[in-house]
Design a protein that fits this description.
It is a single chain. The protein is α+β, with helices and mostly antiparallel strands. The protein contains two helices and eleven strands, in the order H-H-E-E-E-E-E-E-E-E-E-E-E. The protein has a six-stranded antiparallel β-sheet, with no helix packed on it. The chain has a three-stranded antiparallel β-sheet with strand order 9-6-11, with no helix packed on it. Strands 2-3 form a two-stranded antiparallel sheet. It is rod-shaped.
Length: 217
Amino acid sequence: MENTKTNKNMRKKLFMALAGASIAVAALVPVASGALWQDTATGGDTVVKSGNLGIEINDTKMLDVSNNWDYTKNTYKDGSSPVDGEAVSDKDRMVPGDVWVVDSDVKVSLEGKNLVAELGLTQDEATGGLIGECAGKDFGTACKGAHVRHEAIRKSDGKVTSLDNGGTVTLTPKDVTESPDYLLRTTVYFDKSTPDREYVLDSLELKNLSGTLTQVR
């Protein structure tokens, strides 16, 4: 009986010792939440800005460029500037062989890293008796009456781009400046082959000229 009691006491002490060791080990193990290091840093604010696309027509005037005209090439004489000409008043009248232009100063605004746009011109079809037999014919083709065509002229160097048949000028922000950059031009040529007194005291009307600027990229 004494041995049995002694064994029970030993087992009880051993159990208590193991339990105490388990508690001590548990106290040494860190708790998962809140015990590991953590840090936070905040960066500065970021602002993303959009660009701009715009067009303005600032001034429209009529010029006589007949003295600068090469009739064999149907364009401006070599060495002459297409932006030069003599002012035309409301009292002035065309005669066969005259080349007059209607110029509109265009200011283009383009802002955008990858912005690409096309500058074009739209206008109602010219009307009036002065067009005569030239209606629908290529500019410069001999006919009785007046021819009409549309162009863009870069003012910095006089480069001419046709805007007929959907023609456009491709522009990026580096192509524009603070001042008007281009002229939108409508050229009227009263064909010098018009004989006798045909189309005297007649007229031609140009209406609703509009510059267009369209993003293509």
